[in-house]
Amino acid sequence: MRTCFLGVLASLILAPMVFSFGCSAPIQEDLGTAAIVDQLHSLQPNPSFINRTTVALEACGFEVDVYQGDEVTVDFYQKLPSRGYKLILFRVHAGLLTKEGEIQQGTWLFTSEPYNRVKHVNERLASRLVKARTVENKPWVFAIGSKFVTQSMEGRFDNTVIIMMGCYCLYLDDLAQAFTQKGASVYLGWDGNVTLSYIDEATRNLIDNLCHKDTSIKQAMDKTMAEIGPDPDWDACLTYYPAESSNKTIKELTK
Fold first, then answer.
1. Among 87, 183, 197, 228, whose CB has the most other CB atoms within 10 angstroms?
2. Would you say residue 25 has pLDDT above 60?
């Protein structure tokens, strides 16, 4: 594991958020570099999840970089495509922008960068950033939306597998469309609110399922849903985008 250190005019409230295969064997070849983006580390760390997921990805054939807490800034997201990752796992707060109970402007990923009204002014005016917080007594931070992905991120993803652990990351498909438009080969996420304990367990299961030879995205997803099930509190389910990635393996999707 390589631990790396990197030198909204609207409001967003986040809704409360090792098993064996038959004859299938783990992938045994170099698949490139993966990143774990652990924005939740500062307030809700889970070192066991990070360590076990890193080991699983390394066994799958990835070299793994980990970015945690305060490293996850607007600038970090902006430069992310240019780093050449083949798989990116986002352990990040996410949510829907709402106004008077109605969804506005799609899905947003949190940074750990404190909101400051004199920073990133042009990005905010262009609706690429908003200010966000998880609950009313928590501080505001910047959050990025689909326009930020397509218009502000530098470079392109190179057939990157994107796995989103936040709430509502595939309730709408705006972020999924943005990441695939930017070059990602597949985008996986949950279609509703999720609890942290559930999402950590389900994602570990998903990684294990994905990292076996000849296992397609749909097969891995279906196996995780059969073994772990939907979120027990919110009934959110794992899904993916686009549909044509269904029968491809992680090796095929990262070529």
1. 87
2. yes
pLDDT-derived band at 29, boundaries 50, 70, 90: confident
Read off the CATH number of the domain in which 160 is found.
3.40.50
Give the structural domain span for 201. 2-13+29-253
Residue 20, pLDDT above cutoff 80: no
21 occurs within a structural domain: no
36's tokens: 């774990």
Asked whether the predicted pLDDT for residue 24 surpasses 70, the reply is no
Give 44-52 contacts, CB < 8 A, sequence gap 24+.
44/196, 46/91, 46/196, 46/200, 49/91, 49/200, 49/203, 49/204, 50/91, 51/1, 52/204
* Residue 92 counted as domain residue: yes
DSSP 81-116: GGG--SEEEEE--EEEEEETTEEEEEEEEEEEEEP-
End-to-end CA distance of the chain: 22
Contact 32, 84 (CB under 8 A): yes
- The first and second tokens of residue 162, run together, are 């994107």
Q: Is the backbone peptide bond immediately before 45 cis, with ω within 30 degrees of 0?
A: no
Task: Please tell me the total count of domains within the chain.
Answer: 1
DSSP helix/strand/coil, 69: helix
- Tell which phi-psi region holds residue 84, choosing left (phi > 0), alpha (psi between -120 and 50) or beta: left
d(CA 125, CA 111): 18
